[in-house]
Write a structure and sequence with these properties.
mainly alpha
């Protein structure tokens, strides 16, 4: 596609975009409010972190039992239903006196629903846009997510302090309902992309099929592992610089925005295909400076430069779609989304454990080193298994 304006002229792109933005805002405001509420009730940093990362970690379960529905259910109905489930769960979380086991039961259900919603959303995006439109379209969604998270965390922090966490959970409920209304009223009715009923066995069959192809398998690992480890670095901003964590998060979001614009619109397709490994190395390398425990201004520049490397995911998603049959596109993209969020949650827990045993700066350096080493290992494995041309 020629420009971002062309995307918004495409029928159904705008309502899908606005619905996803409302969904992200609800997730951000609601997650911060729930983490605060759980910490006030329990005094446990671990339970607070799990209440925020719980839905991400639960997506690995959804990827193994529900994901076939991403292609086997009507997309409009699926996206609307997922938003309604999330709205109902968030409203329950706002109830006074909800026991802690009840909180985590709701969080589990929300994570399972979200795993289905991701596959349905990105599969529909691939269906709405022409073949050359998915990458710039996903770039716009990524940019919106970063900006919405910055605004959502800032707004949620102010409202949580000025009002209460429960009031913010009710605001998140309203945002989820607006996302549901956007999909129901703004999208047209479409049939499922694949025949058959969704089931656990169908999910497992599709997962096995997607992983049976070595290039696809390496692409998935490249999407999940290197950037998941860097999210572990980001999870330590608060403990590294408590008074400047917001600045570091903002700089990281700006760097990601710059990377998405550059990769999504400015880099020619022929060049873009060779950028995945260099961008993933860029994602990790600046974090090695944290071994020197630099001052906040140097850290801000480092995280901004590093986060431009998140643009690698656009290149890798384009490659994944090229390797995947159209009837499995929603499932394949949902598996990418669920695996990515799961690895981000696991990496945050691992980085936090390392920081507890050493220091935040040391943990960030070690985690970034692991990310760079993983990138090099995956690139080496891909080169070793490139098919050789047969003699004529």
């Amino acid at each position: 596609m020629r420009s971002y304006q062309d995307l918004f002229r495409t029928p159904e792109f705008t309502p899908l975009f606005l619905s996803a933005t409302a969904h992200t805002a609800a997730q951000t405001v609601g997650g911060l409010a729930l983490g605060t509420l759980v910490y006030r009730a329990s005094g446990s940093p671990l339970l607070s972190a799990l209440s925020m990362f719980g839905p991400s970690l639960a997506q690995v379960l959804g990827a193994t039992v529900l994901l076939s529905g991403a292609d086997r259910l009507p997309p409009r109905r699926t996206l609307t239903g997922v938003c309604l489930v999330l709205a109902a769960g968030t409203a329950v979380l706002a109830l006074p006196g909800l026991p802690m086991w009840g909180v985590f039961a709701v969080v589990l259900v929300q994570g399972l629903a979200a795993s289905l919603g991701g596959g349905a959303r990105w599969g529909l995006l691939n269906e709405i846009l022409p073949r050359d439109g998915y990458l710039p379209g996903r770039s716009v969604f990524n940019m919106s997510t970063g900006l919405t998270q910055i605004g959502g965390y800032a707004t949620g922090g102010v409202l949580t302090a000025a009002l209460s966490p429960r009031a913010c959970l009710l605001l998140a409920t309203a945002l989820y309902l607006s996302a549901a209304a956007g999909t129901r009223l703004g999208l047209t009715r479409r049939p499922p992309r694949s025949a058959g009923r969704p089931s656990v066995s169908a999910t497992w069959r599709a997962n096995r099929l997607l992983f049976s192809d070595r290039p696809r398998r390496l692409t998935y690992l490249g999407l999940w592992l290197p950037n998941g480890l860097i999210v572990g670095c980001e999870s330590l901003y608060v403990s590294y610089a408590p008074d400047a964590a917001g600045t570091l998060f903002a700089c990281a979001a700006l760097g990601m925005l710059a990377g998405d614009v550059t990769v999504g619109r400015l880099v020619p397709a022929a060049v873009r295909q060779r950028l995945a490994t260099p961008l993933l190395l860029l994602l990790a390398a600046p974090y090695l400076l944290f071994a020197l425990r630099p001052a906040v201004p140097v850290c801000a520049v480092a995280v901004a430069v590093a986060s431009a490397g998140f643009g690698a995911s656009l290149v890798q998603q384009e490659r994944l779609l090229a390797l995947t049959p159209d009837e499995l596109s929603g499932h394949a993209l949902g598996l990418h989304s669920s695996g990515m969020l799961t690895l981000q949650g696991v990496s945050a827990a691992l980085a936090g454990t390392l920081a507890q045993l050493t220091s935040p700066a040391t943990a960030m350096t070690l985690t970034a080193t692991a990310s760079a080493a993983t990138t090099l290992a995956l690139a080496s494995s891909a080169r070793r298994h490139v098919p050789r041309p047969q003699p004529a």
